[in-house]
Design a protein that fits this description.
about 20% helix; six-stranded antiparallel sheet; about 30% strand; eight-stranded antiparallel sheet; alpha+beta
Length: about 290
């Protein structure tokens, strides 16, 4: 309601759309109302769960709307808008991304390793990288308050091990690192420890096998954010982390649809783009080696 009031004060003609949901995510409900978003100059997704990857938002952006993803879900009762992550300078995110942009533009394969045991290889061939820095001044732009570099993954070509030691999206912080195994783009094995059982149970709530597909790879750019499990959007944007987005990726440049999308966040990666190392132990290299 406050956002609507501020929009009116700025001279806009806001329309408030409220979609209730008792399901894990409400994307399918938004998709059933695609027409509500077409023709809007700007859309602010101030929802509990992110709607950024839905068909409704994809179609609206393709039609010329601007979209800002502002998912407000938190696990500690504190408003996302009160957190330090909201003070990150977009220009600083642009500067960090500029270090690696030339390498990303010609990328085919991404390999991620960590001291914890991650060794994951993903194909990004013919996929475009996105920079999300909260700035969407031009028509046809979709962005997020999760400052990050993101790319949709070729849906059947992610292979290897992810040692998940950060957070499990909306579920919260990982208590015990989980060994996850991917084959042909799908999550095929979840270690059955405490956190692993939480993750497996959460995936079952979607009643959708498409949720087991790795749809996105993201690299956090927000130096003011912290991965503590209190806010999934802050967790995934924290500098020094990377994440694998599970489920739908159609609004990120991919081809996969599912009932939801959520991110698995891990710490301190070494990241290689083809033959170039762009990140070492969570730090972007000033001049990636080509």
């Amino acid at each position: 309601m406050n956002l609507r009031d501020q929009a009116e004060a700025a001279g806009a003609s806001p329309v408030l759309v409220i979609v209730p949901s008792g399901k894990p995510q409400s994307g399918e409900l938004f998709d059933s109302r695609c027409a509500d978003f077409l023709g809007a100059d700007a859309i602010i997704g101030a929802t509990h769960n992110s709607i950024m990857t839905t068909r409704a938002i994809r179609d609206a952006v393709l039609a010329g709307s601007r979209f800002l993803s502002l998912p407000l879900a938190t696990n500690n009762g504190r408003s996302l808008l009160e957190g330090d992550m909201m003070t990150m300078d977009p220009a600083r995110a642009e500067l960090l991304a500029s270090r690696v942009r030339p390498v990303l533009e010609r990328a085919r394969l991404v390999r991620v390793t960590t001291e914890a045991g991650t060794d994951l290889v993903c194909s990004v061939e013919d996929r475009s990288w996105n920079l999300f820095s909260g700035v969407c001044e031009n028509p046809g732009v979709s962005t997020s308050v999760s400052f990050e570099i993101s790319v949709s993954l070729v849906e059947d070509r992610t292979e290897g091990i992810l040692m998940l030691d950060g957070s499990m999206g909306y579920i919260g912080r990982v208590h015990t690192p989980i060994k996850l195994r991917y084959e042909a783009g799908r999550l095929v094995d979840i270690e059955a420890n405490r956190s692993g059982k939480q993750l497996a149970d959460y995936l079952k709530t979607f009643v959708d096998e498409r949720m087991f597909v790795a749809g996105e790879l993201g690299i956090g750019l927000n130096e003011m954010a912290h991965c503590t499990g209190n806010s999934y959007i802050e967790d995934e944007s924290a500098y020094g982390t990377f994440h694998v987005g599970m489920g739908r990726n159609i609004a990120l440049g991919g081809k996969h649809y599912a009932n939801g999308h959520f991110d698995l966040v891990a710490f301190h990666p070494d990241i290689y783009i083809d033959d170039a190392k762009i990140m070492e132990c969570g730090e972007l290299l000033p001049r990636p080696d080509a």
